């Protein structure tokens, strides 16, 4: 069975992106890696990221040149689960993970080839959380 390298990222849905950004940056002292209208990415520790995702943007698919990130909502328009979690894997294990998920009846919702480097598989757990398996290069990180 393929294995995880680490927990890469966790995402929290926020009502006010500017207030949340200021809290995590100014109060908790986290280093901001990137920011966009969708959200902010903070470095928690080496190779570990916290994503703050606008609740509004979490309701629509994220379009990227390399593929589409599924929305974090149910068909009824409600946010699913507590948020989003991504697991880091070796590039060589991504195909084994895809096969493992499919063999267990888990639908791979999307695969994204990120600009620069890195690929991600997106799927949901039984509670509807949006999960991701990502290869090195995502966010400029290598593991």
Distance between the termini: 19 Å
Q: What average pLDDT do the residues reach?
A: 85
- For the secondary structure, the number of strands is 10
CATH architecture: Roll
By CATH, the topology is 2,3-Dihydroxybiphenyl 1,2-Dioxygenase, domain 1
Helix percentage range: 10-25%
- Side by side, the strands of the main sheet go 2-3-4-1-7-10-9-8
Q: Structural class from helices and strands?
A: mainly beta
Number of helices: 2
CATH superfamily: 2,3-Dihydroxybiphenyl 1,2-Dioxygenase, domain 1
Q: How would the global form be characterised?
A: globular
Question: How do the SSEs run, as a string of H and E?
Answer: EHEEEEEEHEEE
Biggest sheet record: 8 strands, mixed
Domain count: the total is 1
Give an account of the 3D structure.
This protein is mainly beta. The chain has one domain (6-140): 2,3-Dihydroxybiphenyl 1,2-Dioxygenase, domain 1. It is 15% helix and 38% strand. It is built from 2 helices and 10 strands. The protein has helices at residues 17-27, 94-103, and strands at residues 6-14, 31-35, 39-45, 48-54, 62-64, 67-69, 84-88, 110-113, 119-124, 130-134. It has an 8-stranded mixed sheet. A two-stranded antiparallel ribbon has the order 5-6. 25% of the residues are buried.
Question: Which terms would index this structure?
Answer:
single chain, 143 residues, mainly beta, 2,3-Dihydroxybiphenyl 1,2-Dioxygenase, domain 1, 8-stranded mixed sheet, 15% helix, 38% strand
């Amino acid at each position: 069975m393929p294995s995880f390298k680490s927990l890469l990222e966790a995402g929290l849905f926020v009502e006010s992106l500017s207030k949340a950004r200021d809290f995590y940056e100014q109060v908790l002292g986290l280093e901001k890696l990137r920011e966009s209208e969708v959200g902010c990415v903070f470095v928690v520790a080496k190779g570990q990221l916290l994503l703050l995702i606008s609740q509004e943007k979490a309701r629509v698919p994220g379009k990227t040149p390399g593929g589409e990130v599924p929305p974090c909502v149910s068909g009824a328009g409600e946010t699913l689960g507590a948020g989003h979690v991504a697991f880091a894997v070796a590039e060589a294990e991504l195909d084994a993970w895809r096969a493992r998920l499919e063999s267990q009846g888990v639908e791979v919702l999307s695969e994204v080839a990120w600009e620069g480097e890195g690929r991600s598989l997106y799927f949901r757990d039984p509670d509807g959380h949006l999960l991701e398996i990502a290869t090195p290069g995502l966010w400029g990180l290598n593991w």
